[in-house]
Specification:
elongated, disordered N terminus, 292 residues, single chain, 12 helices, alpha/beta, disordered C terminus, 49% helix, 10 strands, six-stranded mixed sheet, four-stranded parallel sheet
Length: 292
């Protein structure tokens, strides 16, 4: 595949905002003959006083929750670690087996398997909050159910509203939050390259990456210029949730893969990016002529 110039990046400069899997993302870009610019935008910060997480176990044991929706693999592991600070693993597993577990995608399933657990419901791709609701609707009537939702760095008001509209009582459990990285130099350097027009492609694998990117740009009073510069690049989004957040920041992704995975994103970008950039450059030249 990568030997075919129609499906490789041909030396294009690609900025990726991935943090936890930054090295893997950079290697994928190189594999498709691109030049990666790694600019982490996030770090996961466990909540130090995690009362909601610690209280969930005795509440499940007391039968107060019918369903526990686990939104991320990282959150599932972090929730388990938080509970281990106060309870034994045996007690945690015993409680979790008393409720119906809903896994939002394969990463949650993998985290549960590590604990010897299997979800009652596994949400299908593209694993958005919409698919969570569709999966629940297909499996049961949730009116009157008490549901706990493990949040994933940012609050998801849509899923809470959707559950409440269906007659469920909902409690959210924040097990970690996202913050800007401690070292902002790589991200600032990437922003400068984008502003200079030295980047061809921007890849977003999480909506919070866009939020943090523009948060830093706003702090540096460069957010509007950054938004304009991004429109001249090819923008790749890993999936619908990420795309929604990019749109909120005024960016319309040009490329989105069928499957919300990093490998699928890179492959789709490699196959489409040259056509996207050709069109954008033609449109830019036309705007210049019209302006003159």
């Amino acid at each position: 595949m990568t030997g075919d110039t129609r499906e490789n990046l041909q030396g294009l400069k690609v900025v990726c905002f991935e943090s936890r899997r930054a090295k893997e993302m950079a290697e994928l870009i190189r594999r498709y003959s691109g030049e990666p610019i790694v600019a982490p935008t996030m770090r996961e910060v466990p909540l130090s006083d995690n009362r909601a997480a610690l209280e969930i176990l005795p509440e499940i044991e007391a039968g107060k929750f019918d369903i526990l929706i686990l939104m991320t693999g990282v959150g599932t592991r972090t929730l388990n670690q938080a509970l281990l600070s106060q309870y034994t693993q045996e007690r945690i597993l015993g409680a979790l087996r008393k409720t119906q577990l809903v896994a939002r995608g394969p990463k949650v399933v993998a985290a549960l398997k590590e604990l010897g657990l299997m979800p009652a419901i596994t949400v299908r791709e593209p694993n958005t909050w919409r698919e969570v609701l569709v999966s629940l609707d297909a499996a049961m009537t949730i009116r009157g159910k008490h549901i706990a939702v493990q949040e994933y760095g940012i609050s998801n008001s849509e899923i809470v509203s959707g559950l409440q509209e269906r007659g469920a009582t909902v409690k959210t459990i924040a097990v970690y939050r996202w913050a800007l990285p401690e070292d902002l130099a790589p991200l600032r350097a990437a922003i400068e390259k984008i502003l200079r027009g030295d980047v061809d492609v921007a890849l977003f694998t999480n909506g919070a990456q866009a939020e943090h990117l523009f948060k830093l740009a706003d702090y540096d009073k460069a957010d509007e210029n950054l938004r304009l510069a991004c429109k001249k690049m090819a923008i790749g989004s890993i999936g619908p949730i990420c795309t929604e957040i990019l749109m909120q920041h005024g960016l319309k992704p040009d490329i989105e893969p069928e499957h919300p995975k990093m490998g699928s994103l890179i492959a789709r970008v490699a196959a489409s990016v040259h056509a996207v950039l050709t069109l954008k450059r033609a449109q830019g030249a036309e705007h210049v002529r019209l302006g003159n």
